[in-house]
Amino acid sequence: MTTVQSPVPASAAPVSGRARGAGARGAAWLRVAGGLLAVLGALLPWATFVLNEGPYPEKATLQFFVAPLGLTGFRLHLALLGLAAILVSVRAVRGRARIVRALGWGIVATSLVNGLYITVEGGGLGAITASGGSAAFGAVVALIGGAFAAAGAVGGGIEPLPVREWRMPWWAEWLLLLVLFGLLLLVVSAVLTSGGQGGVVNPYAGAVFLSFLAAAGGAFAALHASGLLTWLAAVAERHRVFSIVVLLVMALLLPLTGAGTEYWMTVAANIGVYAATAIGLNIVVGLAGLLDLGYVAFLGIGAFVAANLSGAAASEIGIRLPFPLVMIISAVVAGLFGAVVGSPTLRVRGDYLAIVTLAFGEIFVRSAQNNIGGLTGGANAIPNIPQVSAFGTAFNESIAIGAVTLPAGVLYYVLIVLLVAVVMLVFGNLKNSRLGRAWIAIREDEDAARAMGIRTGPIKILAFLIGATLAGLAGAFFAHKTAVVAYDSFRFLESVTLLAAVILGGMGTIPGAVFGASILFVLPEKLREFADYRLLLFGLALVVIMRFRPQGIIPDRHRRTELAPVTAQDPPPAKGAEA
Amino acid sequence: MSRKRAVVATAAVLAGALVLTACGTNRSETGGTAGGSCDTSKGTLVIGMIAPLSGGLSALGLGMRNSAELAVDQANQKCTVPGYRLAFQAEDDQATAQIAGQAATKLSSDPNVVGVVGTLNSSTSQSVQPILAGKKIVQVSPANTNPTLTLGEAPTTDPKRPFPGYFRVATTDLVQGPFAAQYMVQKAGKKNIAVIDDGKTYGAGLAEQFAKEATRLGATIVAREKVGEKDTDFSGVIAKIRPLNPDAVYYGGEYPVAGPLSAQLAGAGLAIPLMGGDGIVDADFVSLGGRPGDLATNVGAPAESLPSATAFIADYEAAGFAEEFSAYGVLTYDVTNVIINALAKVADGGAFDDAKRQELIDAVQQTSLDGANGKVAFDQYGDTTNMLLTIYSVEGSDFAPVETGTFRSS
Amino acid sequence: MLPTLLSQVANGLVLGSLIGLIALGYTMVYGIIQLINFAHGEIFMVGAYGGLAALTYLLPAAIANQWYLALPIALVAGAVIAALVAVAAERFAYRPLRDAPRLAPLITALGVSVALQEAVRVFYPDATAALPFPSIFIEGTLEIPVPGGTVPIKYAGILLALVSLALAAGLQVFVDRSRTGRAMRATAQDRDIARLMGIDPDRVIVLTFLIGGALAGVGGVLYGGYLNNINIDMGFQNGIFAFTAAVLGGIGSIRGAVVGGLAIGLVKSLGGQYLPGGTAYDYVWIFVVLIVVLVFRPQGFFGETERVRA
Fold this sequence. Notes:
The complex is a heterotrimer of chains A (579), B (410) and C (310).
Chain A: H1 22-43, H2 73-90, H3 96-122, E1 130-131, E2 134-135, H4 138-155, H5 170-193, H6 205-225, H7 228-238, H8 240-253, H9 262-287, H10 296-308, H11 323-342, H12 350-369, E3 389-390, E4 393-394, E5 399-401, E6 404-406, H13 410-431, H14 434-444, H15 446-451, H16 456-482, H17 492-505, H18 510-526, H19 534-548, H20 557-563
Antiparallel strand pairs in A: 1-2, 3-4, 5-6
Helix pairs in contact in A: 1-2, 1-4, 2-3, 2-6, 3-4, 3-6, 5-8, 9-13, 9-16, 9-17, 9-18, 10-11, 10-16, 11-16, 13-16, 14-16, 17-18
Chain B: H1 2-21, E1 43-51, H2 58-78, E2 84-92, H3 97-108, E3 113-118, H4 122-134, E4 138-141, H5 148-151, E5 166-168, H6 173-187, E6 192-197, H7 201-216, E7 220-226, H8 235-241, E8 248-252, H9 255-267, E9 274-276, H10 283-287, E10 295-299, H11 307-319, H12 329-348, H13 357-365, E11 369-371, E12 374-376, E13 388-395, E14 398-406
Parallel strand pairs in B: 1-2, 1-3, 3-4, 4-5, 6-7, 6-8, 8-9, 9-10
Antiparallel strand pairs in B: 10-13, 11-12, 13-14
Chain C: H1 2-33, H2 40-58, H3 61-64, H4 67-94, H5 103-123, E1 131-132, E2 141-146, E3 149-154, H6 155-177, H7 179-189, H8 191-196, H9 201-227, E4 229-230, H10 234-249, H11 254-274, H12 282-296
Antiparallel strand pairs in C: 1-4, 2-3
Helix pairs in contact in C: 1-6, 1-9, 1-10, 1-11, 2-4, 2-5, 2-9, 2-10, 4-9, 6-7, 6-9, 7-9, 10-11, 10-12, 11-12
């Protein structure tokens, strides 16, 4: 989970310091009224009748909440957001207008998601207004409330983002971070499990998930608006090593939370594969500035090498090496291919290079499809790759430690978390090394870099080599986890997805690629009911993100200025606290 | 940010739908769970499906989804499974192995899921099989053709069944390819055959087995070429085989390529018949350029001769699905009924629990069903015993059956 | 063997001239705003579906069956729809990013490409699989006698090649001679200076997208009429080839785009015939040639100097 920025452009001119008189008082009343309406909306019924697929969750159908403490789900979220809006409105809090604006937008988004969903499922606006003698205006009231709050906040003038510079003793800050990251773990788990696993038992899983996202987004935006998030990020930055260790531990604790199911372990393992690969790509694209459009081929090469050395019956080689050795060999082979693919960089630059990499990617897919050298299984793929096992336990089994039974696939999860951690470590060290600085110099201006004495050729090839090595590592994992390696897992669209993960998360940053990969995998999993439109939304999302936030969600501090639109008023500071 | 964007994008799509629906409701009197008058006291059991519901292969996948849904709805109306309401849950595999694995894990971690219909692609089945096998969930595919899925790594020399809970009703390449070769060489008297495929599991396997049998029967394979599965222009391949004077072309692949390929063959002066497998048996083959005299093999007896098939087609149309049932609809309907009938047998004796999963697999193994596509039964490997195949030929605007026969490996 | 060789050459030239026509759009857009407009291949595809829609839903069968009536109408429909989509993409997706770092618009272009392809798949009736495309020219095949046999070329293929080359030649003249063409060249060289000279760069850029889109739309309709089937993937595949052609010929050069297109067409057809691996590897050969050319002549056949951008 991370901050969700409100997309509203900060168009309102800063008017702090000016007397506003009646207008300001009106805006204050509007804010309070908005909060009240949101709470009222949460208490009103939302659907006029039981929808055909089953009753809408959180007792939305024709139920007044006489017991306000019994609110659950999205109604609880709305009530909390509304109460927060009221509280902040009547108290003098720094960054008040920004906070209320964020809360208002959260309320709007939450009520829109639920209202629209009921409307569409119910076959028309009658479902959320009045129909058949019953009335249910919860959605409308809450929506108006949110709009009021946001309008009241903007109308009262938006002050600059507050900066907080509290300092605490180191042990207090450590404790704070511990609690913070613990909460983060719970939020991640809540996001993953919100709405349940969906399917027939729970037809509204997608809506519940979106609603949760909207509410959580509003809450995070409010936190950010209060300046707390920035401050927390600064605290985490002060205790960098501690934060990283705690985050790693928290990531390893995920199987103990509600998300500790076999399903989420599998999804998380796949996210990890793509995250590790995306970090590798981040070296090539984010640091060295060399656009690679065929990157997934290295994942494929690693996977095919691992498949051939796994003892799978379909592989031509038919030997079985221990998994750690297989990983190393996969990484080395992929790295060598990376150097080969990177070698044209000596002569080809910029977009031409992008096309060369695209060409390599296509050559790889075609060759794999045609079973080149008998190594890829061709159209039949290489199936039944044995599971990784250690100490007699296959990694896809569930394990019991004492009284705790961990879900199946948890060992794969642990393995991929450690793998991603290693990859992150490599990336982080490289980035701040002499080599990393050379890459960044080449990215900024290759000729100037050369003039400064950087041997650009070998260094560029090194970027491809190291990036491909990381992808190859992930590929070896991928082969065993998926149990089959087929050419059609490595098509151009996968390369685009990887690139999108890097860009979406934020180029050149460590958490960025992981975060981007998580979003690109979790969203389609949670929204399987919209599968028809998956790619359409993916394409549109790329366009919209580039339009409004080309620097990604977690922008690199150095890079921020470069990718941010020139007109951006307040480039948000780095938020380094994501797993 | 992107989440918010996704919310906005979704909202935009929903809002679009809203404009179309105006201010009304679709309130139905029953409101909520269907089930009617059946006894559903023991709860809900879920039949899952894994198929490509998005992307390029979604036409086939959505047809499968609808057909399975139809079978489940009918079972609920007829109270086929005593004490249980059946539910149907289709998951998208995006036609890739790792997403199929996720879908399989999602289904298999739900204790109510009793069986899975699917997948479409053989490569996705390869990742689904071990996951479902781990939970003893029965899987029946209407479409997988790769012989190794049931026969192990050495299908012809040393067949070994890798997954006892996996069944399929699609005939493997080992049946359909040779059957086509026998017809083409022995009955139609073609001696110089060009073999083309699309490089996918289904097409490449089919073409390979066809070529093997045709060579064995004394024909000459004059060319062995590949086209891209998404190509529209086949002039290169055609110019290459033209001087070799083939008297027939065998194409391993599906109708979107086969139709235009046939038309372009004729356009280049090669007025020779094109033959394919069940993947080209579709009226669209002809509208895309399939010519009278083009041939195809299909599994089972012709639909018109089976009353159950016409009943399926009528029911499917009555159900008002947005998509056509397409190539695998009929078989999907059958395999869904295979699972349902086996479940009915198993659930008759008491509540369904994990201990009954093996019983369910055994019940599927002993299936004997008169399905919409003919008789369904399984051999010791989980393959269909229905060796009945029909040769079709294009007449007018669609395929018409020429002859029905039983495959014998000679 | 001679008829086979000549047939493959003919196939290569027909495909190549189409690739060249699409490549014009890439090369013009890249020349002016240095954007790899990945969505351009999809514009070509949208043009084909636009033409098909006009033929199926707009025209009464009596008109659609007369090729001399159907052809111009389909061409105009395809060109207009493709041009509109291209201009809309420029206006709403690319223009806001004009001053952004160069990766941003490239990602946007990938997004537009995916979205356009999916939009057609989801919203055009039955577009999930290949659709038949009616004949819009004299049907049949011209059999050219050569020693040892004949070389067959469809009349529609000849039309496709001739129209493509004529349009490219026309574009060359337009860019060389007309006032607008001069404005385009000026904008390509230096947008700011062009602005000082009284040229409205926005207008020029819109015009570039418009022309490129219309040419691609014409190509889509002619290609559909030549092969009598279209699918939603034809844009991506031919788009990659066309971009390759544009790079081969030297980005920014109209002549280069056409020569590059013909080279790609010939490599595909002759490579599938004579090179090891045959038709299974014909795509691979195209990309191998691309890599080799770029490594040894990075500016392409007609490119002037290597553009220094990273």
